[in-house]
Amino acid sequence: MISSLLVVCVGNICRSPTAAKILQQSLMNINVESAGLSALVGRNASTKSQKIAVQNGINLDGHTARQFDNCLAAQFDLLLALETNHLENIFDIAPEARGKAMLLGHWENKKEIPDPYGKSIEFHASVFEQIHQASISWINRLQTK
To answer: pTM of this prediction?
Structure first.
């Protein structure tokens, strides 16, 4: 049984905090957090990500970016990455995570979700929709009946 889940992207200011909040809202019995492989440590969620999240009923206030490391990996039952190369980076940092790391888009034909950092608000909105759909697929599998 999964009791904790970590969403991992690069900077931990766009995709992973968004996915973590979406998952957290529905998976009340699971500790859901996020981190970045090259985290912009201490930064809040990006302004564009916050704006799109609010438009979709998600609040990213209070998020602070943090760095992924092997100690953090050990604390979670499931690690969800946004891109395949993130999985490889996770395995380089924490080889023992190999059996518990998957793509957020795993149930969406192993879809990779692109990084919206520095891109238009429209691109952020598109990425939000991809994150939302992939998160719903995980929620449907992880919710206790």
So the answer is: 0.96
